[in-house]
Specification:
- There is one protein chain.
- By secondary structure, the chain is an alpha+beta fold.
- The chain has 2 domains: 86 residues, Roll (Ubiquitin-like (UB roll)); 84 residues, 2-Layer Sandwich (Alpha-Beta Plaits), CATH 3.30.70.
- The strands form 3 sheets. A 5-stranded mixed beta sheet has the order 2-1-5-3-4, sandwiched between helices. Strands 6-7-10 form a 3-stranded antiparallel beta sheet.
- The chain is elongated.
- The termini are far apart.
- 28% of the residues are buried.
- Bound molecules: iron/sulfur cluster (SF4) (2 copies) and FE2/S2 (inorganic) cluster (FES).
- The site of one iron/sulfur cluster has 14 residues, from α4.
Length: 230
């Protein structure tokens, strides 16, 4: 077992535990965004940063294993300021059209903004080009809403083993897409929908066929059969 202190609370946890998990076990909440418990740990967003006594830089708690005698602060002024800036930078390259967004009120990015109290757009700059790919029968990709958490990449490659979604290009131009940025409808996607399930925003969503169903129901020449998707 490893002993450490988080926010003045002395804890003892198993070796190999991350600081995030140690904090959660002690009911200390650290905000996260890219992390998905038991599925995806990539350290991509840095929202979960904490201050560790003796360390020069803030550390991503979801990737940081506990060490004997560690003293951690999860909510100091320095941590709160850093979290806010990280969030605001992500927001500066986001469409911010919440009112008409498919994920309004069920969006993890929106919820996080409330939690860390961001009420302003402080940073304006170049925006990534929005590219909507509706070529698939069941999934719509909207790259302009992607926050590059890479959850979908992990799920598609490591859990579903479909190998469809991957990181394409680099830096500011990074996008999550099939190889060569081919349309999703033209590649070997299994339409399992697992990537949609883990996406924290509306960058991946299910195709909405409700209007077509209404039309079919109103057509007396059609017999309508309803089948649920997997
Ligand atoms: S639907 Fe399944 S196979 Fe297709 S991109 Fe998403 S996770 Fe990969
Ligand atoms: S598409 Fe969604 S799950 Fe995939 S990286 Fe972008 S925000 Fe994350
Ligand atoms: S939640 Fe830890 S880096 Fe994203």
């Amino acid at each position: 077992m490893v002993s450490l202190t988080i926010n003045g609370k002395r804890l003892s946890v198993e070796e190999g535990t991350t600081v995030l998990d140690a904090a959660r076990a002690a009911d200390i909440q650290i905000p996260t965004l890219c992390n998905l418990e038991d599925v995806h740990q990539a350290g991509a967003c840095r929202i979960c940063v904490v201050e560790v006594e003796g360390a020069r830089n803030l550390q991503a708690s979801c990737m940081l294993p506990v060490r004997e005698g560690m003293v951690v602060r999860t909510n100091s002024g320095r941590v709160r300021r850093a979290r806010k800036v990280l969030y605001e930078l992500m927001l500066s390259d986001h469409p911010r059209d919440c009112l008409t967004c498919y994920r309004n009120q069920s969006c993890e990015f929106q919820e996080l903004g409330h939690l860390i109290q961001v009420w302003d757009f402080r940073f304006e700059g170049e925006r990534s080009k929005t590219k909507v790919d509706a070529s698939s029968a069941s999934i719509v990709r909207d790259s302009g809403k992607c926050i590059l958490c890479r959850r979908c990449v992990t799920v598609c490659n490591e859990i579903q083993e479909a190998g469809v979604l991957n990181v394409q290009r680099r830096g500011f131009h990074t996008v999550i897409a099939p190889a060569a940025e081919l349309p999703l409808g033209s590649v070997n996607c299994a339409n399992c929908g697992q990537c949609v399930m883990v996406c924290p925003v509306a960058a991946l969503r299910v195709q909405d066929h409700v209007d077509r169903v209404w039309e079919a129901l109103a057509d007396p020449a059609k017999r309508v059969v309803v089948q649920t998707a997997p």
